[in-house]
Amino acid sequence: MSDQFLFGAADNAPGLVTDKIARKYKKEMKHNELNQRNKIKPMRLRETEHREQGLASALDSSNKGFAMLQKMGFKHGMGLGKDGTGRAEPIPLAVKADRGGLGRDMLLKRQMEVKEAMKHENSKEKSKNRTESKR
């Protein structure tokens, strides 16, 4: 049996897709896929990738700070200080991503501790009042 009848019947049969439409659909799908693959990354994602790349690479003498340390006698892998017993690795970077402001987390923590202490004191007073009223 031949498939020739399909090409001739495409005009008459509404369920059959012609080659022209199928090629156009494949082309659109390929175009959409390429657009998704090449889509520009959001700014935060690019920033984090750039930061991670910078933190992964060690400093060299082209860095002004590292050049100054070398002039003062620092060697790679040594610790800081007169005896070389100080910090050997840089201070870790902590990125603040939310909009709360510096110190807000500590303030919220203190406020929660005060609330808990107040609840605890109130519950003690209530239990003390209950025992006194029963007498």
From TrEMBL:
InterPro entries: G_patch_dom, GPATCH11. Residues 61-107 form the G-patch domain. Residues 28-59, 111-135 are annotated as: Disordered. GO terms for molecular function: nucleic acid binding. It comes from the Eukaryota. GO terms for cellular component: kinetochore. This is G patch domain-containing protein 11. PROSITE patterns: G_PATCH (PS50174). Residues 44-53 have a biased composition (Basic and acidic residues). PANTHER family: G PATCH DOMAIN-CONTAINING PROTEIN 11. Pfam families: G-patch.
